[in-house]
Amino acid sequence: MTENVILETKTLREIFKIRKDDLEEKHLNLPISIPDYQRIYCWTENNVHKLLDDIVESADKTYPYHLGSLILHKTNRDIKVDEQNFKKEDVYAIVDGQQRLVTLTLLLLQIKDDISVPLLNEKFESTEAQAYIAYNKTLIQNYVDKNKDKIKVDNLLDKLQFSVLIINDGSLDLAYTFFSNQNSRGKSLTDYDLLKAHHLRFIPIEKQAIHLAERWDNVVLNSGNDASDKELGRTIGIYLFRLRKWMRKKQWSDDQKFKVKTEFEAAITIPDVPPFGEKFHFYESIQGGAHFFAYADHYIYKFRNFVKTHEYNTLNVLNSESHWWYKDAIETLLFAYYLKFGTIYLSEALYCIERIISEHRYGSGRSSLRAVLEHANNSEIVMMIDQATSPTFFLAEALNIIKKNSKKELQGIQVRYNNYVIEIQKQLKQTMCVDSIIKFSNEKAK
Are residues 264 and 339 in the same domain? Predict the structure, then answer.
């Protein structure tokens, strides 16, 4: 371990290898790169101003100002010499510290515009990252104009210090381990950042890794990263996460840190027996690498079509008060049915799922999201769907459960909830192909 990892304290000048006698020339010589598993540059105005304020506050002090830790992974890359020849060049991939180093590079560029800045020669292909860089350049320019006397190049290079952890070539697994456990000073890493890092390590082909990383970044950007109401957070973080837990009758805490990342990490395998299969069962063991990204793509595509259905949109009436707890559980289970049978008898399935899940609301004066999810788990609806070989078997079993539920006198929030349920049932009658289902479900079991 000690020969693979080196920990040193370095100034910004030492990190960027700017010698004092070269200052009038150019030189940011340390070949730093931003690896594919890193998230995009995304520091907000508050992050930038906090860093700049810290730098200004330390300007009059004689001792160094410590800016936290950096983690760099030393590796090498091919540099084109001519049309036929390449040479190897050492490069330091930023595992942690990208947001600070890019921002400090923008600051150096602002206070001394003749310094070459190779870090900005990295490919910032994301339009969002480009927008952050452009906006932060303006922020920094305005800030420097107001604080010219307190921001000096030499002070910046010599007084700013970092604890630099260098992971040597051949220790990529170690780099991922540090990446997975380190939060930078800015925006915290999410489950989806860490899943990207985790699964890229299983892909040995560089071009394939870059392609999949870019596709994943686009999904993350379009979904507001871990926003629970967008396609990535909804599909992976809500639907599939819960369905996988319910299939094994497992409980979980919503407060558990990185619970989604843990659930969708690569499953343990036997080294001599390769995994195979492309059937995409939502509860299948997660294969590391390209298969995971294909798995995610498959279910996000399913989600995009699911949200277009009449049945999905019918549930929107339950968005008020705490009714959304039940809406979420019903919607998740309906997604499981949709994955198995598509839109065939989808209205009937929604009717049955709603009746079974709503029984908890009618039996409880007070409730909680945790209690609703436990009820959904105990209902075993997800297993009923999985074991059914056609919609009729699921519907028949569900209707038998509904028939056994007794009528209850409703009060307060139960009445308000039931009024919404009645509206849902009215809308479903317009699309239900089997008119006798509601009548059948209301009959008393003999």
Answer: no
Radius of gyration over alpha carbons of the chain, in Å?
A: 28
In the numeric block, the tokens 């008119």 are attached to: 435
**What residue numbers bound the domain in which 280 lies?**
190-301
Distance CA 106, CA 85 (A): 34
Domain end point (choices 252, 280, 301) = 301
84 by DSSP, 3-state: which?
coil
What was the pLDDT predicted at 33? 75
Q: How many domains does the structure of the chain reveal?
A: 3
CA separation for the pair 241, 260 (Å, rounded): 7
| Cα–Cα distance for residue pair 104/102, rounded to 1 Å | 5
- Least confident range of 50-54, 131-135, 436-440: 436-440
pLDDT of residue 209: 75
The type of residue at 45 is E
Taking the chain, what is the end-to-end CA distance rounded to the nearest angstrom? 71
User: Rounded to the nearest 5 degrees, what angle is found at the Cα of 340, between the Cα atoms of 335 and 345?
Assistant: 80
Residues 109 and 96 in one domain: yes
What's phi and psi for 272, nearest 5 deg? -85, -10
Cross-strand pairs, 163? 9, 69
Q: In this structure, what token pair is assigned to residue 331? A: 């919607």
Greatest Cα pair distance in the chain: 95
The string of pLDDT tens digits covering residues 77-128 is 666 667 777 777 777 888 778 888 889 988 988 887 666 655 666 666 667 7
What would the pLDDT profile of 230-289 be if each residue is shown by its tens digit?
Answer: 889 999 999 999 999 999 899 998 888 889 988 998 887 776 666 665 667 888 888 888
Instruction: Give the residue among 245, 235, 51 at the shortest CA–CA distance from 156.
Output: 51
Same domain, 197 and 139: no
Residues 360 and 223 reside in one and the same domain:
no
Q: Point out the domain boundary residue: 260, 276, 301.
A: 301
Q: Residue 418: which H helix or E strand, with range?
A: helix 413-429
**CA atoms of 306 and 334, how far apart (whole Å):** 9
CA distances from 373 to 225, 251, 315, 357, 386 (A): 24, 9, 17, 9, 18
Residue 213 sits in the same domain as residue 359: no
Summarize pLDDT for 171-206 with one digit per residue, the tens.
Answer: 555 555 555 544 443 445 678 877 887 887 787 776
Report the percentage of the chain scoring pLDDT > 70.
Answer: 79
More confident residue, 22 or 389: 389
